[in-house]
Write a structure and sequence with these properties.
mainly alpha; 7 helices; globular
Length: 131
């Protein structure tokens, strides 16, 4: 499922690079529902402080679901950044990093890809906070 998500997100990144932000956003919204069975607005509205607790305890999500959501939030951050919305980019970056860090602590296997993503997200957050 993560592999399929990677392909879908790669297509969205392609749309972002082309400047087709509307279509990228529509495709992203569709992925939220198809992969996580909830509307994107549901996830966007959860404060980062409640994110893992609410999804794990109240909605019985798994670490796999959280990893998908971390990827989606990271893509949301990229889209917001491309559109010049640094406030939104920061919010999504922080949520994505929080989820990736949670997953990294929970899983027993080392993922260099995840570590690279977390590093890139931290750099983006630092850049946004210092600008």
């Amino acid at each position: 499922m993560i592999e399929m998500l990677g392909d879908l997100l790669a297509a969205i990144f392609g749309l972002i690079k082309k400047g087709d932000y509307h279509k990228a956003g529509e495709n992203l919204d569709r992925i939220y529902y198809n992969m996580l069975k909830e509307d994107a607005t549901f996830f966007r509205s959860i404060p980062k402080e409640d994110l893992t607790r609410k999804l794990l305890e109240e909605h019985n999500y798994t670490n796999g679901h959280l990893e998908i959501l971390a990827e989606l939030f990271n893509t949301e951050a990229e889209l917001a950044g491309a559109k010049g919305n640094s406030k939104e980019c920061l919010v999504y970056s922080e949520k994505s990093l929080l989820l990736f860090e949670f997953i990294d602590l929970q899983q027993k296997t080392l993922s260099l890809d995840r570590l690279d993503k977390m590093s890139a997200i931290r750099e983006r957050i630092d850049s946004l906070k210092n600008s």
